[in-house]
Amino acid sequence: MKNALMLCTAALALGASMAAAEEVRVYNWSDYIDEALLEKFEQETGLELVYDVFDSNEVLETKMLAGGSGYDVVVPTGTFLQRQIAAGAFQPLDKSKLSNLDNMWDVISDRTAKYDPENAHAINYMWGTTGLGVNLGKVREVLGEDAPVDSWDLVFKAENMEKLAECGVHFLDAPAEMIPAALNYIGEDPDSHDPEVIAKAEAVYEPVRPFIQKFHSSEYINALANGDICVAVGWSGDVLQARDRAAEADNGVEIGYFAPNEGAQMWFDMMAIPVDAPNPEGAHTFLNFIMDAQNMAAASNYVYYANGNLAAQEFLAEDVITDPAIYPTPAAMDNTYTTTPYPPKVQRVVTRLWTKIKSGT
Amino acid sequence: MRRLTLIAIPYLWLLALFLVPFLIVLKISLSDTAIAIPPYTPTLDLSEGWAGFKAFLSQLDMENFTWLTQDDLYWKAYLSSVRIAFISTILTLIAGYPIAYAMARAAPEWRPTLLMLVILPFWTSFLIRVYAWMGILSNEGLLNSLLIQIGLISEPLTILNTNTAVYIGVVYTYLPFMILPIYSALEKMDDSLLEAAEDLGCSRLQAFWLVTVPLSKQGIIAGCFLVFIPVVGEFVIPSLLGGSGTLMIGKVLFEEFFNNRDWPVASAVAVILLLILIVPIVLFQRNEQKQREAEG
């Protein structure tokens, strides 16, 4: 009896380890890859790819901190990555297994090293800015030809928002970006961790809050493309995807993305391997696959986000590499800011403030 | 022995699926948040034996519960949840009672079919049904285009992302939970009682109020509790259909857990929510017991 049991357990354990060796589980942002690449990965490596998506760093972080997520590769944004590394959520990369590491772009690597010293735990997947997605036709109709589409004035001035409310304005439901944006707008340090400074963001939102239809981090892609809303504060590539979908639908909607001239937040989405990944070997294979110049270029050509891969640039489509909304000019890049993670006590202040801004309570 | 097993099963069920999880949540609510896996401290380390356990106990405190009293957000959210649940319950009762009544009055051969129709929506995922309401209620949705087409309104009504949408979603979702117990109470009713009432000079309306409603009281109470209790902690409906102004404790709990990553405070919110719900749950149990005694 006991022997039979042991045999069963052994068989189960064997089965489990065999399954683990064949599968790579990736947890990435929604609308963030060319799906043809997923098939290509399976064909090239013989590994089975399980690909799940999320639309908020907060949800990802909760899974990471709970442990045992079962994923081999996850994609947190830089600030979140930094905190999760501190919590011990990621394993150091085995760079000997990442032959394509030489493809990476030092301009970006230098910046991401701020979150992850020496880029020991993660590689950059894509990066972008947080700015304004604008339905050009409607906004000009409402605000006139000289509408300030490239300025935070568009969404932080009540007189503009009052008129824009008719056609709909969405904001990202991402306090770690929307609070810094407001602070930057009034000339404070967007990366301030001082609760008194952070509190000033409330006054920025208060007059415009009644005119914001919704705070959401993924619905705006479709809403912009369909013409349901006319302005979204959103992520660069997402807005550009909306632009593309509208163009494909040929529905007369013309979308533009603007990194506001007062400064835009620059962020980096990083691929990392959880400390308890079932298949770290396969995870490294996936990272190396992603860092292949042609693969990375294919992903960027599809989702309109810039990547941190220098070798990929020669394979980028003309309208991607030359679009300043995707690859900003060096001067525009200097006009961006980055943030660092909030400590827990300050995080509480930020979330509380965000709840207050959103619900009025 | 057999009797003991029979009694033990529900208690084991309760122990494993309610008491143990509750104690875990309670324990987390007394901890402090930390940047770690899991994101709170202290965690129970049994390797140091009894001393470790004592050290663990000494680190627990009520700080998170004090925090809840200091910010009026939580009380407002609890109150608002109870209010939304209360109004939804009344609305569900108003919508559900006539349906249950009609079902119980229908010819007996029709009743199984009608019962099936009430249960039928459960064959589709709850989430998908709530999503469908987003399509119906949005500004360019089915409802608005229908109303505009028949000329009732000229501008689309803003329903989605408001409390109205939450009420619609809740009443729709929980309607079967109201209909079924009322139906089962009405179905058992003896029709000759109504004839007797009419013979004794009641009008049909009077007979309804004096005979039918009191006899279905147990079903009404059961239905109301079955709706009220889960709606207080409802999260999916307010987050999909409600706007940012919809304040419900389920959403606050979600935010504490996911956005603040503050498991201890989220757990404290959950513990208080349970305490608030214990009152109606105990009342519900009592009602059930009384009913059983009356029948037994």
Automatic annotation (TrEMBL), chain A:
Residues 1-21 form the signal peptide. It comes from the Bacteria. It is found in: Periplasm. GO terms for biological process: polyamine transport. GO terms for cellular component: periplasmic space. InterPro entries: SBP, Sperm_putr-bd. CDD domains: PBP2_PotF. Required for the activity of the bacterial periplasmic transport system of putrescine. PANTHER family: NORSPERMIDINE SENSOR, SPERMIDINE/PUTRESCINE-BINDING PERIPLASMIC PROTEIN. This is Putrescine-binding periplasmic protein.
From TrEMBL, chain B:
It is found in: Cell membrane. Keywords: Cell membrane, Membrane, Transmembrane, Transmembrane helix, Transport. It comes from the Bacteria. CDD domains: TM_PBP2 (cd06261). PROSITE patterns: ABC_TM1. The chain crosses the membrane at residues 12-30, 82-102, 114-134, 165-186, 220-243, 263-284. The keyword Transport applies. Its main location: membrane. Residues 78-284 form the ABC transmembrane type-1 domain. It is a multi-pass membrane protein. SUPFAM superfamilies: MetI-like. Belongs to the binding-protein-dependent transport system permease family. CysTW subfamily. This is Putrescine transport system permease protein.
